[in-house]
Amino acid sequence: MTTLTKQQFTQSLNGKTLSIADAKDDARLSGVNLKSSDLNNDGQISGDVEAGRLFDEIDKFDKNGDRNSVALTQRGRATPVAPKIEAIGEKAQVDTLRALANTGPRSNNDVVLLGMNKGSSHEAQSLRNRGLQVQHIKDARVDDTARGDDGKTYNLTTPDGVSGFVGSLKLPEAQSAKIKEVLNRADPDAKDELAQLTKTWAKGERGEEIPSRLVLSGHSVGDGVWGDHNGEIYRRDIADLAKAMPRAAAQVEDLHISGCYSGGQGHVDSWREIFPKAKTVWAYTGSAPGSYSGATTHLARWDRATRGEVSTLDRNVARGTRKGDNVATWSVDTGYNNGEPTRSYAEVRQDFDWSRPDYDQFFSGAENVENTQDGPLRDHYNNTQRLIQHTDLPQEQRAQLTAHRDSTIRLIYYSKSVAPNFQSHHQDQIREGFRSVGMPAPDFSKLSRLDALAQISAFENKVGRLSSPPAAAQSLLPLLTGGLRDLNSAIIPSTWI
After folding, report:
1. What is the pLDDT tens value at each position of the chain, 497 positions in all?
2. Could you tell me if 114 and 137 are in contact, meaning their C-beta atoms sit under 8 angstroms apart?
3. Closest Cα to residue 217, out of 110, 290, 159?
4. Where are the alpha helices (DSSP H) in 92-190?
5. Do the beta carbons of residue 455 and residue 442 sit within 8 Å?
6. At residue 18, what are phi and psi to the nearest 5 degrees?
7. Residue 374's Cα: distance from chain center in Å?
8. Cα–Cα distance for residue pair 139/116, rounded to 1 Å
9. Cα separation of 404 and 320, whole Å?
């Protein structure tokens, strides 16, 4: 057991000052009544008497039974007092306190698995069967609700609900404001998973030890993960949360993105910026195995390769497994490796330009997708992904190519899921819109793309000839043209793919 006496504490602060305004913005000092130690109300804590009062406040979090000392470690682990002493040492620039209390964060083999699909329960259990402590973050029973640290359940679809949830975490005001922005902006039906991650990371912000390994599992095109009949968490959501909670993000040492097209070097570099202390990253340059078709095998090999304090990860640990050829890894010692020779931007661009006519054929409806996992349109999608992920892609081309990528994946799944979901979601508007201009309403879930485009064109022409089109028709038209025809991601969400 490592202890700190009251006399040692006050002596170490001799000649130093602790700004209350600065200290109150540190989550490690949450719950400490700093103002009660500022006896002369000058906004800072200084002198032996005020330092002694501050020690008494810290002692309220100690359980060693001695009012004149606090325990910093017990049974080899940091106590709740340690991060508070460490924070005081940092804020008051007392190296002795900071060094004495700096017990970690230490590496551990625990895992946070954030799964957007129901199959992630199978993935989490497979890791538990390996003897690991796994926190499984999954879809809440009631969408976009989360239980706060106060035991109450909050509705995250309203600003008041988000405010109540974040307030329950007892983090500093400025930090809480940033977290609220992230949760309020998050996609519907993804707020609950993001809130659960926030709750875990709040412990890290308070100086507690949290799992060193993070798995993000779900469907992906590279920018985040989503689930069937669930929401989408974007990489920017994780990035902004990490900026708001940097101490927690700094505890993530091993990252596994169990999602398709997540492993281009550009994507991996972006994840490394989010988690600056990461030592390894595992992701996929192509499609990733599903929960019941290989993901657990990959997770087992990833677990074995990243246990302990490692800084090397070889992609060949996935050799011989389903989708193993699609694995890309990065590690501190070996850098990025996707198993392919480095290709110039010009070569990758040439492949994209060569396959672009295939996209046009499918987009026009002249060709139909027979296999969503193979064929010329899937080849073009792969070429598009490689181009977007190339580190030499000019920045000014990125937005246009990303939009093209998004329309291509929606085109691949047009008949299988996009058109059926569109019909189901908008069936009332389709019926009323066509009826309002005297046309029979089609069932887009049963039409080929060629026939659907013909119906949309006929409807657009009919509406255009009317001097005063009905409101129902005006409302439906942009959904048909922008959504079902142009496959705009703003109208056709990723969760319909």
Report:
1. 789 999 999 999 999 999 999 999 999 998 899 999 989 999 999 999 999 999 999 999 998 888 999 999 887 778 889 999 999 999 999 988 888 887 555 679 999 999 999 999 999 999 999 999 999 999 999 999 999 999 999 999 999 999 999 999 999 999 999 999 999 999 999 999 999 999 999 999 998 899 999 999 999 999 999 999 899 999 999 999 999 999 999 999 999 999 999 999 999 999 999 999 999 999 999 999 999 999 999 999 999 999 999 999 999 999 999 999 999 999 999 999 999 988 999 999 999 999 999 999 999 999 999 999 999 999 999 999 999 999 899 999 999 999 999 999 999 999 999 999 999 999 999 999 999 999 999 999 999 999 999 999 999 999 999 999 999 999 999 999 999 999 999 999 999 99
2. yes
3. 290
4. 95-101, 120-128, 159-167, 173-185
5. yes
6. -120, 115
7. 29
8. 7
9. 33
CA 30/CA 27 separation, integer angstroms: 5
In contact, 414 and 381? CB cutoff 8 Å: no
Q: Using an 8 Å Cβ cutoff, are 241 and 194 in contact?
A: yes
Contact of 437 with 474, CB cutoff 8 Å: no
- Beta-carbon contacts of residue 341 (< 8 Å; ≥ 6 apart): none
Residue 257 backbone phi and psi in degrees, to 5: -100, 100
User: Nearest-CA neighbor of 214 among 278, 261, 267?
Assistant: 278
* Three-class secondary structure of residue 394 per DSSP: coil
**Structure-token pair, residue 195:** 């809130």
CA atoms of 111 and 123, how far apart (whole Å) = 11
Q: Position of tokens 């497994």?
A: 321
Instruction: For tokens 């990833």, name the residue.
Output: 302
Task: Indicate the DSSP class of residue 479.
Answer: I
The whole-model pTM stands at 0.90
Of 413, 439, 411, 444, the C-alpha closest to 427 is 444
Lookup result for tokens 């940092």: 90
Residues found in the chain: 497
